Here is the input.
Amino acid sequence: MKLERAEWRDALAVLNETFKIWSPGLSKTDYYFYIASQLAHPWARKNYRYMVYRDRSAIAGSLKVYGIDLASRGYRYRAAGLGAVYTSEAYRGKGFGAKLMESVIRLARDEGFDAAYLFSDIDPTFYARFGFRQMGSGEFWIRLPDSTADPSVLESIGGKEGWEILAPDVMPVEFKHIPQLERHHRQWLRRQPYGVDRSPSYWNYKLSRELFLYEHSRWAWPRLELITHQIDSFAGGYAIVEHGQQVLRALEVVGSAEVRRQLWSKLIALAVFRGCTRIRGWEPLAPDSLGKIKLTPRSWGVPMLLPFRKQLEPLVEVEPCPLLELDHL
Ligand SMILES: CC(C)(COP(=O)(O)OP(=O)(O)OC[C@H]1O[C@@H](n2cnc3c(N)ncnc32)[C@H](O)[C@@H]1OP(=O)(O)O)[C@@H](O)C(=O)NCCC(=O)NCCS
Here is the structure.
C-alpha cells in the first residue's frame, strides 16, 4: 500500500464519492471542474498535490497536500498543509485512515517540511493520536439591533448620509485588489506571532476558488467583499467579509491597531445598514474596541499542528491562534 500522486482518473473516482459531502452546492460537473481548475492553477502546480492511498489497484483513501510558507518572527518555515482526508466508503473502520495519516506524516518529514498542519472538521482526537496538537479555535458572535425592525437603529449611525460616507469603502473583492491586499497583509503579518506568508499567486488561487463558488454554487454563496481603510497613500488596511442572510461573517481584519479599530466601526455600520443582526468571526479577529468578547469553541475548522522542529512547538500555545479563515485548506 502506498501513497502516491493521483492521476486525474483516480481523483475522479474519489470526487465521485466526496461530491456527497464536500461539493458546496455545485452540480457534479461543476464540482469536478472546481477541483480540476484548482489543480491547474499556477500556485497549485507548485504547491498542491492530490494524493491517493492504494490497496492494490483500488483507492482506499485520499488527501490533499499543500506546501505552505509560514512566517514567524523573521523566520520562514515550510509546512505541509493537509486537507480533505478521506477513506473510501468501502474501506472505513479498517485502519486505512490511520495508515493514510502515518504515510503522509512520513512523506512530509522525508521531504523536509518543518511541520504539518490541518483544519479538523471531525473530532480532533482522530488527528491527536498522530501527534497533531490543537490550536486556538474560538469564534465570536456579536449581536446587533435589527435595523429592519427598528428604523431608529439606522438613524443612530447617520441614516442615508452615513451609508453614503461608507459606501465608497465597500466593494466586491476583485483580482485587481491583490497588490493592495498582499501589501497590507504582509505588513500586518510582521506584527503577528506567525501566519501564512501569502504570495500574490497564493492570493489569486484563494480568490479564484471563492469566485468559482460564488458564480457556480446553487446555494446562495455570498461574494467576498472588501472594506478598506487608508490613512495615507501607503498606510492602511482592509477587512474581508461575507454577507449571508442576517449574518455578516468577518474573515479578515488586517492593519495596525488603529486601522483595525476604524475597520471594525465600518464593519459594524455595514452590518447595521444591511439589516444584519449578527457578526461572526474567528478568534484572532475579535475587536479590542468592544471590550472582552466571549469566544465559543468552533465545531469545524479546528487548526492542528504537528511540529517537526523544536522552534515551531511554541506556535501551538499562541493565543489567539492567528490563522485566518481564508487560510483554511
Ligand atoms: C475520518 C476518516 C478519514 C476515518 O477513516 P477510517 O479509515 O474509517 O479510520 P480508521 O479505521 O483508521 O480509524 C482510526 C481511528 O479513528 C477513529 N475515527 C474514525 N473516524 C473518526 C471521526 N470521524 N472522528 C473521530 N475519530 C474517528 C476510529 O474510531 C478509530 O479508532 P480506534 O482505532 O480506537 O478504533 C473517514 O471516516 C472519512 O473519510 N470520513 C469522511 C471525510 C471526513 O470527514 N474527513 C475528515 C475531514 S477533517
